[in-house]
Amino acid sequence: MQLGVEIADFSWVGEDGKALERLIDIAETADSSGFSLIGVGDHLWQAPHAGGPERPQLECFTTLAMIAAHTTRCRLGPVVAGVHFRSPALLAKMVSTLDVLSGGRAVLGLGAGWYEEEARGLGIPFPSLARRFDMVEETLRICLRLWTEGDDQSPHEGEFHRLERPLSRPLPVSRSHPRIMIGGQGEQRTLPLVARYADACNLYPSPDLPEKLAVLRRACDEVGRDYEEIEKTCIMEFGVERDGTGAQETIELLRAMAEAGITTAIGILPADDPAGHVARVAEYVLPEVADL
C-alpha cells in the first residue's frame, strides 16, 4: 500500500510571512520519507469543518507549483478540483503546465464540487448537482483531447463549452497523459465515470467501502475496462499523535482497507504541526503497511 498526504487545513499559514517556509517543510518531508502523492484541497474558502471562510485558504494550483519546485518524487495534484471553478481548457493547461514543470508528476483530481456557499459568496456559478456531473464528463473529454490529440484542431461543440480551436502546447510530459483521479463514490454517476475515464478513484473509509468497490468493478465490466488497472485511493485521517499514540489503530485500519482493495491511502494533514505529522506517519505507519 502507498501513502499520500493532502494539505487541506491552512491554519498554519499565519501572519508572520513564513507560510512558504512551512509549506516547503511539509513537502520536503513527505517527498523524502516515501510518500507517493502530495495533494492540495481545491477551495477558495476554507471548508466549514475546518473553521469556515474566515480561516486561511491558499489557492490550489499556485500551492502545487511551489511544492513542485521543492520536490522530486511525489505525484502532485488537487484532491480534488471542483469542476465549476475553471473552464476545461484552462484546467487542462494548468495541469499540463504542472506536469511539464514537475517532470511528469501531475495528477488531475476532479469532482463535481459541493461547497455552494463558497461559490455563491465569490460570484462563481454553481449549477445543480446533475449539471455539474455532466460538466465533469465534458471536462474530462476536453482535457484528454487537449493532452493527447495530434493535428486534429477541429472545433469542440459540447453542451457546456465550445472550443473553436482545441490546441494546447506543450503537451504533458506524462504519457499518454497525466493521471486522472475522480473524487466521490456515488454509484449512479461517479463510479461509472471512473470506469470510463479515470486512472484512479478517490473513496472514503466508510463501512460500505467493499460495496463501493464492487459497484466500480461492475461498472468496469459494463464498459470493458480492466478493474485492476484502476488505482483505488481512499481519503482519511491518519491520527498519529506526537508520542505515536494512534499509530496502531491507523495501521489496523489501513490493513482492513488493503484487504478491501484500496491501494493508496491519502491522509488529511492536521493544522497543528503538519510536517511533524508527516514525519510521525513515516516513522510509525509507513514501514508497517508498505508491503500490504
Placed side by side, the strands forming the largest sheet appear as 3-2-1-11-10-9-8-5-4
Helix content: 25-40%
Rg from alpha-carbon coordinates: 19 Å
Approximately how much beta-strand content do the residues carry?
15-25%
Q: What's the helix count?
A: 10
- Overall geometry comes to globular
What is the H-and-E element order? EHEHEEHEHHEEEHEHEHEHH
Distance from N terminus to C terminus (CA atoms, Å) equals 5 Å
Low-confidence stretches: none
**Assembly form of the protein:** single chain
Biggest sheet record: 9 strands, parallel
Q: How many DSSP E strands?
A: 11
Class inferred from helices and paired strands: alpha/beta
Mean pLDDT: 97
Can you walk me through this structure?
The protein has a nine-stranded parallel sheet with strand order 3-2-1-11-10-9-8-5-4. A two-stranded antiparallel sheet has the order 6-7. The protein is α/β, with parallel strands linked by helices. The chain contains ten helices and eleven strands. It is globular. Strand 8 (179-183), helix 6 (190-197) and strand 9 (200-203) form a beta-alpha-beta unit. 40% of the residues lie in helices and 15% in strands.
